From TrEMBL:
This is L-serine deaminase. InterPro entries: ACT_dom, ACT_ThrD-II-like, Ser/Thr_Dehydratase, Thr_deHydtase_catblc, TrpB-like_PALP, TrpB-like_PALP_sf. One of its GO terms (biological process) is L-threonine catabolic process. Its cofactor is pyridoxal 5'-phosphate. It comes from the Eukaryota. Belongs to the serine/threonine dehydratase family. One of its GO terms (molecular function) is threonine deaminase activity. Keywords: Lyase, Pyridoxal phosphate. PANTHER family: ACT DOMAIN-CONTAINING PROTEIN, THREONINE DEHYDRATASE, MITOCHONDRIAL-RELATED.
Length: 470
């Protein structure tokens, strides 16, 4: 393919002329300095943390590559035998949200996310000589899983560099798919620097998980399926991180049905695509910890932005509590375990950010299901709190025998479940025969919690309803 013509000549052919060669098929990329400097894939730069970065020839800010509909169509044909045609099913939430919602269940792909589409296509498009050498990528999760799995399927060596914070379950899964896994870097930026250097030294192509042109084309096949499955769709809501999915999917959907509204959704903790839209170009954005960790990309892809910027009708930013609530709703009503990044589309609807969709037929992409099992319980608790079902309050009761028993009886009579209870006696300004009781309880719904508050205030003089979040 034309995309690789210059790259192949500059790296593999030149390396051979210099006598360095490339790693033979099946040989693992060594995680050690090369004895002699290898030719650089572009001028080095700085990532702002003192680390030298190698310019990615496939993601050049000075020459962004816009993906075409023909690219997406070619990808669909190429990957059709290796990718699950995920269902797009009407949700039982439709009536409660006053719109006809269909969930595109990409979390049902073998490795749990839409990333398989781009990974499969990118690997299949490698020149024959490069397939023997292999590829390298930096990822903490879904891209690493997808590349590892399809590399094994296609017989292409894959090396993934994962940061120290990567969940162990994902590290082990990549290894089980035959990938060479290297743990390096405190965050994904440091892992990327290391991966690019290793790729340069060993002749492996670096595959950017959200901006390589073949990745974008592969992700666009989801858009083709949506129009096939829900031909009269009015709007499609897509989570946005680096921009690869919305770029490819929007391109496919707008070409097949221009009237469809494309809506992108980001976490408030990392609104990098919204900032890029304001600036007219990708800009670095501050990132903080988010439930939607798969969307936490500081700078969106240059190719993704160039492809998507004129195709997106609206961008919205959701609060963390609504992402948690969306995960909870999917567990309870759809019997689906979806990660934070995958649930942000539904979160935008639950938060009321898309009132124009009322009465419309809407497809929401549930793009990933690889939530860290150690975090799932905490996320569900956050969702219960956002839903008004997990409540914290402080009440002052008598410290004489039967005082606390009276409180717990009131809670039991109300049908409330006590999750936690704590007594405070020393740091009070009330009389010494009083005790402050801090409670965390679970109610049936918001109306039930309001009934509880009314009953407590009627019985006790000092009741404080604590906020959901600090």
């Amino acid at each position: 393919m034309d995309l690789y013509d210059g790259y192949m000549f500059f790296t593999i052919k030149k390396r051979r002329s210099e006598g360095t060669g490339a790693a033979p098929r099946g040989k693992k990329v060594k995680d050690e300095p090369s004895p002699t400097p290898s030719p650089c894939i572009g001028p080095p730069a700085c990532n702002g943390a003192g680390n030298e970065v190698i310019k990615d020839p496939f993601c050049d800010p000075d020459n962004p590559k816009k993906v075409t509909f023909q690219d997406v169509s070619a990808a669909a044909y190429k990957i059709k035998d290796g990718i699950h045609h995920s269902p797009c099913i009407k949700s039982r939430m439709s009536s409660m949200l006053d719109m006809e919602i269909y969930f595109k269940k990409e979390f049902l792909q073998f490795t749990g996310s839409f990333k398989e589409r781009g990974a499969r296509y990118a690997l299949s498009q490698l020149p024959k000589e490069q397939k023997a050498v292999g590829v390298i990528a930096a990822s903490a999760g879904n891209h690493a899983l997808a590349l590892s799995y399809h590399g094994q399927s296609l017989g292409i060596p894959v090396t993934v560099v994962m940061p120290l914070i990567a969940p162990m379950m994902k590290v082990q899964a990549c290894r089980s798919y035959g990938a060479n896994v290297i743990i390096q870097g405190n965050d994904i930026s440091e892992s990327k620097v290391h991966a690019q250097k290793l790729g340069q030294e060993n002749g492996c192509i670096y595959i950017n998980g959200y901006d390589h042109p073949h990745i974008l084309a592969g992700q666009g096949t989801m858009g083709l399926e949506i129009i096939e499955q829900v031909p009269d769709v009015d709007a499609v809501v897509i989570p946005v991180g680096g921009g690869g999915l919305i770029a490819g999917a929007a391109l496919a959907i707008k070409n097949l049905k221009p009237s469809v509204k494309i809506i992108g959704v980001e976490s408030e903790r990392c609104a990098s695509f919204s900032e890029a839209m304001k600036a007219g170009k990708p800009v670095r954005t501050e990132v903080s910890s988010t439930i939607a960790d798969g969307l936490a990309v500081p700078t969106v892809g240059v190719n993704a932005f160039a492809t998507a910027k004129d195709l997106i009708d609206k961008m919205v930013v959701v609060k963390e509590e609504y992402i948690a609530l969306a995960i909870l709703r999917l567990v309870e009503l759809e019997k689906a375990i979806v990660e934070g990044a995958g649930a942000t589309g539904l979160a935008a609807i639950l938060e009321g950010l898309l009132p124009e969709l009322e009465g419309k037929k809407v497809v929401v992409a549930l793009c990933g299901g690889n939530i860290d099992t150690t975090a799932l319980g905490r996320v569900i608790d956050r969702g219960l709190a956002a839903d008004g079902r997990l409540i914290r309050f402080v009440v002052t009761v008598s410290d004489r025998p039967g005082g606390i028993a009276e409180l717990t009886k009131l809670l039991a009579d109300m049908g409330v479940s006590i999750k936690d209870i704590f007594h405070e006696r020393a740091w009070l300004k009330t009389d010494i025969f009083s005790v402050q009781v801090k409670c965390v309880v679970e109610a049936r719904d918001k109306a039930h919690s309001e009934e509880l508050e009314a009953a407590l205030r009627k019985r006790y003089d000092q009741v404080a309803w604590l906020p959901k979040y600090f």
